[in-house]
Every structure is written in structure tokens, then in C-alpha cells.
Amino acid sequence: MQVNQIEIDNSIIENAVKLTGVKDRKELIEKALLFFAKQQKNPVQKVINDFYNLPVSELETLETSPVYQAKTLSLEDMEQAIDYEAGLHK
Length: 90
Fold this sequence. Notes:
Blueprint: H1 10-20, H2 25-52, H3 75-88
């Protein structure tokens, strides 16, 4: 693993080591990085969990007959319908 060197005030590091009770600078940095990684992961994990815990959908499946019984709309017909609806809501 490659390590990049960064400039950090030694007094800040030493004070953080004393306050956290870790044994040395290396452990402090490791704990800080793990904490940061966990903070970044939690919001993403929540979105993933929320997505997979959605209630069962009432959408049609391939096995069910479609609710919509009219003719299939062309792209032009869809655009016309959208324009019509947009005009109603101005």
C-alpha cells in the first residue's frame, strides 16, 4: 500500500492521541480513516437498504393481462398527449 505524506501540525496529532487514548499516531490515523469511511458508507447503505425494503409492488407482471386496453400509442401520439396535458396545467 502506498502512503502519501501530508503536513499536519504535530501538536494537534499529539493532543488527539492523548484525548482519544490510542497508543500512537499510527493508530490515531487508522481510527480516523475508519471513522471517515464509515461516515461515508452509512448514507449510501441507507439508500440501498431503503430501495431493497420497498413494499411489494402492484405493477403488472409479464404473466398478468395489461390494465391498459387501448391501442398502442406512437411517439407522436405520446408527444401530443404530453403537450395537451401541459397546456391544461399552465
